[in-house]
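Support request from a user on the community tier.

User writes: "When I paste my structure tokens into the form, the page sometimes reloads and wipes my input. The last time it worked, I copied everything first. Here is what I submitted, just in case something in the input itself triggers the reload:"
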């Protein structure tokens, strides 16, 4: 089994820490300290940080320092706009590509993922798995990558907000209705249902973000 290059391993781990809010906005990452932690030279750390900078997750600073990027309400709105633009497209393509076994697997993800979910973060994690699978079924790798990045950004938002109570009934009902349309092979109706689902979710996301008081209004 091949081993990922050092820069890739560092990138994945630092990205995970940022998404899971283990590294908070404005927290500094020292290249020398990171190299010592990961047991590498500074070069793969710099390479990883430049990728994270490209992702918008850090800001490179002079003297071997960088800072975790802030999350603003504008950031949240931008991510939600991406979901509205790409979610229906991914769903439409997925319906045209999915087999009966694929739909069965999607159903298992939905039913198992929402079992026991009781707050925004756990519900979002279940939704993340479901929608990433739909995007993968689209057969469009770029669309899948965009979807995954947007959902990770939303996961970061909710982890920064802390735990917020939320019932899983509505998103689960939405996914069950979507699966019925998948089985019927109606791509346009599936895209419409997905857009409605994303817009309902948008209201929840914005309310949680605003009520948390965590996010700056300006980018």
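"...and here is what came back when it finally went through:"
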């Amino acid at each position: 089994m091949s081993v990922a290059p050092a820069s890739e391993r560092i990138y994945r781990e630092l990205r995970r820490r940022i998404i899971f809010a283990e590294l908070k906005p404005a927290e500094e990452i020292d290249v020398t300290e990171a190299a010592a932690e990961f047991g590498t030279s500074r070069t793969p750390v710099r390479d990883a940080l430049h990728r994270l900078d490209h992702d918008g997750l850090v800001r490179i600073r002079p003297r071997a320092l960088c800072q975790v990027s802030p999350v603003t309400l504008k950031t949240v709105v931008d991510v939600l706009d991406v979901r509205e633009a790409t979610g229906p497209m991914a769903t439409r393509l997925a319906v045209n590509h999915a087999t009966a076994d694929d739909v069965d697997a999607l159903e298992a993800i939905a039913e198992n993922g929402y079992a026991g979910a009781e707050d925004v973060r756990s519900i979002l994690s279940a939704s993340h798995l479901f929608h990433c699978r739909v995007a993968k079924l689209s057969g469009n790798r770029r669309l899948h990558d965009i979807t995954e990045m947007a959902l990770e950004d939303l996961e970061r938002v909710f982890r920064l907000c802390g735990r917020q109570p939320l019932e899983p009934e509505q998103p689960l009902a939405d996914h069950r209705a979507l699966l019925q349309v998948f089985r019927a092979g109606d791509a346009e109706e599936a895209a419409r249902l997905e857009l409605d689902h994303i817009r309902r979710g948008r209201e929840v996301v914005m309310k949680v973000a605003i009520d948390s008081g965590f996010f700056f209004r300006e980018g």
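Agent notes: The reload is a front-end session timeout and is unrelated to the input. Residues 6-68 form a domain with the Arc Repressor Mutant, subunit A fold (CATH 1.10.10.10). The chain has two domains: 6-68, 73-212. Escalated to web team.
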